Amino acid sequence: MSNLSVVELPVLNQPDEAVAPCCPPLNERPLSAEEAERTAKMFKALGDPVRLRLFSLVASHEGGEACVCDISDVGVSQPTVSHHLKKLKDAGLLSSERRGTWVYYRVEPSVLAAMGQLLTTAAR
Predict the structure, then answer these.
(1) Which domain CATH number covers 104?
(2) For 79-123, how does the pLDDT look when each residue is reduced to its tens digit (9 = 90+)?
(3) Which domain holds residue 65?
(4) What radius of gyration do the chain's Cα atoms show?
(5) Looking at the domain assignment, is residue 6 inside a domain?
(6) Which residues in 93-107 are b (16+ Cβ under 10 Å) and which e?
(7) CB-hemisphere CA count at 13 Å for 105?
(8) Mind listing the pLDDT tens digit for each residue in 43-67?
């Protein structure tokens, strides 16, 4: 039997951690120009059906991360897929990492949580 040591690593994005919202709930106070600009960019990125579909493919993929090779079949050409993924990245909704020849995309959970908080708090 080998003598292996166990090292505990910290868990990131624990459910009990507070998420810094992008802006206040809509019914709390009017958004500043900067908050409105940042929030509109995120919602605008999700306003396109292909981008929304790509985003949902990444978000629903096991582990919230997907290789571009697994999500490219959305009825548009590969250059168009790349364009839409770049828009989602530019809006801060996805991050990416190159691994060899493939790019892997993952959802930015803190941004999603903040957007959800913005809307659900306002809906109450």
Answers:
(1) 1.10.10.10
(2) 999 999 999 999 989 999 999 999 999 987 777 777 777 777 655
(3) 33-123
(4) 18
(5) no
(6) bbebeeeeeeebbbb
(7) 26
(8) 899 999 999 999 999 988 988 899 9
